[in-house]
Input
Amino acid sequence: QIELRTEMAAAHLARGSALGRSDDPASGRADLLRARSVYAETGMLVDEARAVTELGRIEYVTGERAEAIALLKEAMGLATDDDVALAFATRELGISIGEQDPETSERHLRAAIDLLERCDRAMDAAETYRALGDLLSRLGDTGRACGAYRSGLAFVEQRFTKGSRGRSPYA
Output
């Protein structure tokens, strides 16, 4: 019974995440709330953190900034045993607070990058470098913004060329 419920929760998490990235992000909320509920009931903290992170991201993109920040902080507390889930929550929190508190936003984005690099998550790290570059660019710090963008690109290229004896896949 529990296994079936957690499988259904995984489906709700996947569907809610996909809908949350659609033209109508709020449409994923119900699925994510269902997933969160099952994960909370079964003590699956990391999966609950993933659902809460996605809920926070939806709240942010729909303009509910205070709710987004509260959810993302909660997700960080739930994800302490999983660096990837913690990195995603940290990144989304960094993005969510960028307009109000750029300094703290930068710290969160850099912390997420460190976690993602340690976990060898090249594309996720690159996406976070892009968010950092966007933040620094909005602040008028174009030199550091370009550095962040370059770091993300270099990190991805390094990962793609790892198994190709140092040759660029674009050569």
Notes: The radius of gyration is 17 Å. Residues 142-161 form the longest helix (20 residues).
